[in-house]
Design brief:
single chain; about 250 residues; mainly alpha; globular
């Protein structure tokens, strides 16, 4: 398989985890405590990937300064975009209860939730594409982190959508579209940056890392903490340890 096609394929696989979570939430009534537990676990997995795969790789490739600039820039960019979407009704897009507004309560909230979900997934997909530069195989720890964390994201978000009367056509149209967009983002990331200088790749990897860590802090951990409370840190630590183990074994 050509490497550019592999980049799109692995991005699609990562995005497909959202659809898997959506299917589970639509057909099975998953208790919110279970969703929150998996969300905390996925947060730990992603934090490990940010620390040991993305940031370390960015610093090794381009140095500390581009990495620091990109990391902070990614965090600020995510916060700004998330704030705009929150005003349109996407603040609680990862909540499994009735916090999400219905279309009747806030017009345009459905589109905002869809765009917000896309905002959460694109940095992860770009990173997958970047991991294949130079003919390398996909980074297994990053792929595992994205897949494991995307399942509870799909679970929680779709449970909330269903509770607020979103139709199956809307729900699976959104998540199916995001899965395809994730594959496309990974492909574009690979093609657009194939000849880029190490400093540029370092900067973009760090931007994605900053956006991912901010997303975890703003949306995943708060949802998890509402239910798991004092166990949130322990569960996240187990997820972190799993991802770190995959990183060590695959490295």
């Amino acid at each position: 398989m050509p490497t550019w096609l592999a980049a799109g394929f692995w991005g699609l696989i990562g995005g497909a985890a959202l659809v898997l979570g959506a299917l589970i939430a639509w057909f099975v009534r998953v208790p919110r405590d279970v969703v929150a537990t998996v969300m905390a676990f996925g947060s730990g997995v992603l934090i490990s990937a940010v620390a040991f795969d993305l940031m370390q790789e960015a610093a090794d490739t381009g140095g500390l300064v581009p990495t620091a600039v990109g990391f902070l820039g990614g965090a600020l960019a995510y916060v700004g975009a998330n704030a705009l979407l929150a005003r349109r009704g996407a603040r609680h897009r990862k909540r499994a209860g009735e916090e999400q507004p219905s279309e009747q309560e806030q017009a345009g909230s459905g589109a905002a939730i869809a765009i917000g979900a896309l905002l959460d997934g694109i940095p992860e997909s770009v990173v997958l594409g970047l991991s294949l530069l130079g003919g390398a195989a996909v980074n297994p720890s990053v792929l595992a982190a994205i897949f494991i964390s995307n399942v509870p994201e799909g679970l929680s978000s779709v449970a909330g959508m269903k509770n607020n009367g979103r139709s199956a056509r809307y729900v699976f149209g959104v998540w199916g579209g995001i899965a395809v967009a994730s594959g496309f983002a990974a492909l574009v990331g690979y093609l657009a940056l194939g000849d880029a200088r190490p400093g540029t790749i370092s900067l973009i990897t760090a931007v994605a890392a900053g956006a991912i860590l901010t997303m975890i802090s703003d949306t995943m951990i708060p949802e998890a903490f509402e239910r798991t409370r004092t166990w949130t840190g322990v569960i996240a630590t187990v997820g972190f340890l799993l991802a770190f183990t995959i990183h060590e074994v695959s490295g």
